[in-house]
Amino acid sequence: MSFIPPDAATDRLFNNADSFAMVFDRTWKQLRSGKGSTASQADHLEAVLAAMADHPFLISSPEMARQVAGFRIRLLELD
């Protein structure tokens, strides 16, 4: 049995909130640190969602995806 660490990058995307959350967290951090972004949290959220536009959960449940994103931001105290 092989073990895949939770922070491992994967190309597998699933149409569920867990898959969305994992990709959201990684994308948020990459975009925030990659550019040394000084964008507001709201602007950064829109950039992250735009970068994730092809995620199945965001496509099928955009309002729920936004709620999950907001929850992740509060839960992880993302800046």
Structure description:
With 79 residues, the protein is an all-alpha fold. It has a domain at 17-32 and 41-76. The protein is built from 4 helices and no strands. The chain has helices spanning 17-34, 41-51, 56-60, 62-76. It is globular.
Please report the total strand number as a whole number: 0
- Rounded to the nearest angstrom, the radius of gyration is 13 Å
- Reading the helices and strands in chain order gives HHHH
Round the mean pLDDT to the nearest integer and report it.
85
Tell me the major beta sheet. Answer: none
Gap from first CA to last CA: 37 Å
Can you count the helices? 4
Shape: globular
Helicity level: 55-70%
Q: Give unreliable regions as ranges.
A: 1-5
**Alpha-beta classification:** mainly alpha
Strand proportion, as a percent range, falls in: under 5%
Keywords:
mainly alpha, 0% strand, disordered N terminus, 4 helices, single chain, 79 residues
Question: Concise description?
Answer:
The chain is an all-alpha fold and 79 residues long. It has helices at 17-34, 41-51, 56-60, 62-76.
List the helices and strands and how they pair.
Layout: H1 17-34, H2 41-51, H3 56-60, H4 62-76
Helix pairs in contact: 1-2, 1-4
